[in-house]
Amino acid sequence: MTRVWGLGLLLALLLPLVGTSMPGTVVRLNKAALSYVSEIGKAPLQRALQVTLPYLLDQSGETLQPTRIQIMNVHVPRLRLNFVADFGVHLLAAANFNFKVFRVPEPLELMLPVVLLADAHVAQGPIQTPVVSISACYSLFGNASVPAGSNSTSPALLVLLQKHIKAVLSNKLCLSVSNLVQGLNVHLGTLIGLKPVGPESQIRYSLVNVPTITNDYISLDINAVLFLLGKPIVLPVDTTPFALPHHAGTQGTVATVGLSQDLFDSALLLLQKAGALNLDITGQLNSDDNLLNTSALGRLIPEVARQFPKPMPVVLKVRLGATPVATLHTKNATLQLQPFIEVLAVASNSAFQSLFSLDVVVNLSLQLSVYKVKLQGTASVLGDVQVTVASSNVGTIDMDQVHTLIGTVFEKPLLDHLNALLGIGIALPNVVNLHYTSAKVFVYEGYAVVSSGLSYQH
Ligand SMILES: *[C@@H]1O[C@H](CO)[C@@H](O)[C@H](O)[C@H]1NC(C)=O
Ligand SMILES: *[C@@H]1O[C@H](CO)[C@@H](O)[C@H](O)[C@H]1NC(C)=O
Ligand SMILES: *[C@@H]1O[C@H](CO)[C@@H](O)[C@H](O)[C@H]1NC(C)=O
Ligand SMILES: *[C@@H]1O[C@H](CO)[C@@H](O)[C@H](O)[C@H]1NC(C)=O
Ligand SMILES: *[C@@H]1O[C@H](CO)[C@@H](O)[C@H](O)[C@H]1NC(C)=O
User: Fold this and answer.
1) What pLDDT shows up at residue 16?
2) Position in ligand 2 atom list of the atom nearest CA 142
3) Number of helices (H) and strands (E), helices first, in the chain?
């Protein structure tokens, strides 16, 4: 069975998914995101620039003398990244190199300031991930100097050393920057990884078109596909293309993530199809706070008392046939559930006997939050629970009386169950080791927005 599911999952992933039926999200990385990258990027850049140098062959003397030169450390005091509209990102890094020259009779220390300039193009890769490539790269060299107080050297040797170092570094540094960017691309590729939603369900994001880049931000259209047992969840109606309005969320934030109504609808459809929202509420006999027994029901419905002279446990089978509906209004999100409840009693032969069934409508207020990479929710009942009798095997039911009883025994278990599910949450678009921090969720007419910082965990 697992093998069949595995195959189904594989097929679902390989089959081209129709773009129009995928719920949209937009991830906008603002200028503050580049500031963050330049802050955390200094250390990896320093490591990448620590290249090895070939020996210097000094032909000035009588004999050919190879001299070993080693980079002792690289310090990057300044790394500046800027968006370049319709293109990508411009990089400027100031680096100070410290060399040790293993010269006989005594070693020599050397400092060299270098400015690196690079243009990085951001595009959509073949597997629907963002891909960065270095399109231009230059290094500008300052003059080498010997640290004060160290052994002096002849100007001729300094010129020779400087020429050698520049010749080597002008190629190697740009190659190192390219390699660093390749590593970044591998990291960005994890965007499309399957993330678990529940035990048998996953979500997968992909970049659906070329990123939009302005001087202030890069905006990525990232669609989601939810899978249940390897099959994509397809909404009954075509999804509408989602665009993130410019001023949504808080200004100056690192990341702004727009989540379409379709994403909420898909997640709820997944929960319903998976049967995750169904639950059985069972009463225990001889417990004081349990109203679920035939003697308690029999006080309200005479026919129940007649059929069950001895108290028997009662079970509520709560089933969600209809998909829950999330409604997003400015500053408020609500959820409507329409459970069908079958009320059963355990008969003397320990078989279940259906007493009656109810159609219920519950309106819930939904609070959204983000923890690490997940969008989570908390629901609370809004107003009154609407209960109507769908069928009855115990004659006429006085709804006024049963309403209170059902409301009492049903509301809390349903809320606990729902909140446990919403608490698990659903992964937002992300790459490995990158978390959302201090996120605020804003709800607007037909969409939600997460304004957040980002934190890279090494
Ligand atoms: C300077 O030369 C002495 C030997 O003459 C050596 O021990 C020392 O390490 C050298 N200092 C530097 C900074 O290269
Ligand atoms: C490097 O030294 C040369 C000659 O002393 C000088 O002309 C030039 O301006 C210096 N360059 C820098 C970047 O300091
Ligand atoms: C049935 O429910 C009532 C109301 O909660 C309770 O007082 C009574 O003890 C219950 N009876 C049994 C047998 O559990
Ligand atoms: C949510 O917003 C809608 C539209 O503004 C309004 O009709 C509704 O009463 C609000 N609900 C809550 C719980 O605030
Ligand atoms: C639930 O909300 C809908 C839409 O706001 C409203 O029409 C309906 O009367 C509410 N039902 C209950 C049971 O509160």
Assistant:
1) 47
2) 13
3) 7, 23
Please, are residues 91 and 80 in contact by the beta-carbon 8 Å criterion?
yes
**CA–CA distance, 379 with 39 (Å, rounded to integer):** 38
Q: How far away, in angstroms, is 242 Cα from ligand 5 center?
A: 27
Residue 380 is predicted with a pLDDT of 96
Which pLDDT score, from 0 to 100, does residue 2 have? 45
* Domain assignments of the chain as residue spans, ordered by start: 6-19+30-190, 233-456
User: Which residue has a Cα nearest atom 9 of ligand 1?
Assistant: 107
The per-residue pLDDT for 435 is: 96
**pLDDT less than 50: residues of the chain:** 1-16, 18-20
CATH architecture assigned to 6-19+30-190? Super Roll (3.15)
In this prediction, residue 120 carries a pLDDT of 98
**CB-ligand 5 contact for 178 (6 Å cutoff):** no
The residues that bridge with 83 in the sheet, in sequence order, are 89
How far apart, in whole angstroms, are the C-alpha atoms of residue 228 and residue 237?
A: 18
- Asked if 206 and 223 count as a contact pair (C-beta separation under 8 A), the reply is yes
> Atom 7 (ligand 4): residue with closest C-alpha?
329
Instruction: Report the alpha-carbon distance of residue 197 to residue 427 in Å, rounded.
Output: 7
Smallest-distance ligand from the CA of 446: 4
CA contacts within 13 A on the Cβ side of 177: 26
Tell me the pLDDT tens digit for each residue of 441-457: 999 999 999 999 999 98
For the stretch 105-134, pLDDT in tens is 788 999 999 999 999 999 999 999 999 999
Q: Whose CA is nearest to atom 6 of ligand 1?
A: 106
Q: Tell me how many degrees the CA angle 318-324-328 measures, rounded to the nearest 5.
A: 145
Domain at 233-456: CATH architecture: Super Roll (3.15)
